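can u do me a favor
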């Protein structure tokens, strides 16, 4: 039995693993895909204290090594079941069952889809949700980014170094991302901003050829020729395996207190998976540390203060 089980090896989960290992607790981290979480899709990180610039995958790799060096064990298995209401928390994967005294939910988020015609059909054939992963396939071609937040702006800036032309489509007339990123987008010659516009349909044969868009102010439709379409229109929670019994809001984000406690004793939520006003790298790290502190106090209490 482990002291602490952690669902997810993103920034929050790996930070929790580092703190748990350093506190002398036995800790097991579950990851069903790639370690690092959403940050591995980021071409660059420039807003984390003491780090001027680093790529998302590099940052993730450093966290993994630090967590493992601290004593955390990572298993690359998808969680398919959870029995967490009792004193012993049981997690089931395709490989078996694991027991723990506490559980930290750090499942992060996944990118939302546009929900437009032919999106599913062209995913992997021109439609992508990761510019850093797939951008190189569109070298010297035309790419289009949909979205107006930090991720969309970062994607456009990254793609501008690879593609001959980058469109960025947003349903509003201004971006909602950081001013620094917004300024860089407008200063980049081969990026063209198309405001007040949404994608209506994805068109092609074997691969993406063009997209049909609509101007929300004029109602005008037009087509844009593009080989790549990168979707960056927000995130959604993925906590279904734990809720119920864990309380979530209407959007599926876990309800947790400031110390990351949930409504289930011994179960905590950290990072982007929980209800919060700001979802950033640094807030995920802070949650990971806070969740382990709470879990450690809980373990010490059930161990009779030892």
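np, heres the sequence
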């Amino acid at each position: 039995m482990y002291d602490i089980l952690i669902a997810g090896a993103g920034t929050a989960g790996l930070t929790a693993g580092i703190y748990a290992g350093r506190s002398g607790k036995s800790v097991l981290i579950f990851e069903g895909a790639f370690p690092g979480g959403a940050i591995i899709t980021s071409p660059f990180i420039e807003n984390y204290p003491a780090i001027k610039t680093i790529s998302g995958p590099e940052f993730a790799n450093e966290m993994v090594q630090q967590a493992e060096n601290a004593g955390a064990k990572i298993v690359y298995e998808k969680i398919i079941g959870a029995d967490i209401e009792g004193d012993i928390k049981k997690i089931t994967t395709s490989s078996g069952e694991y027991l723990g005294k506490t559980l930290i939910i750090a499942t992060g988020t996944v990118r939302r889809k546009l929900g437009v015609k032919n999106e599913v059909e062209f995913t992997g054939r021109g439609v992508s949700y990761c510019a850093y992963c797939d951008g190189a396939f569109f070298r010297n071609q035309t790419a289009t980014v949909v979205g107006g937040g930090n991720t969309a702006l970062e994607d456009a800036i990254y793609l501008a170094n690879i593609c001959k032309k980058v469109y960025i489509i947003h349903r509003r007339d201004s971006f909602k991302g950081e001013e620094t990123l917004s300024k860089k987008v407008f200063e980049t010659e081969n990026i063209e901003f198309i405001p007040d516009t949404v994608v209506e349909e994805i068109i092609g044969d074997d691969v993406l050829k063009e997209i049909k868009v609509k101007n929300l102010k004029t109602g005008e439709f037009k087509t844009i020729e593009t080989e790549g379409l990168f979707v960056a229109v927000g995130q959604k929670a993925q906590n279904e395996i734990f809720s119920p019994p864990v309380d979530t809001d209407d959007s599926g984000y876990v309800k947790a207190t400031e110390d990351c406690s949930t409504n289930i004793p011994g179960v905590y939520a950290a990072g982007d998976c929980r209800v919060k006003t700001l979802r950033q790298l640094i807030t995920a790290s802070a949650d990971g540390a806070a969740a382990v502190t709470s879990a450690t106090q809980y373990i010490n209490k059930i161990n009779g203060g030892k």
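The CA atoms of residues 237 and 251 lie 7 Å apart. hope that helps!!
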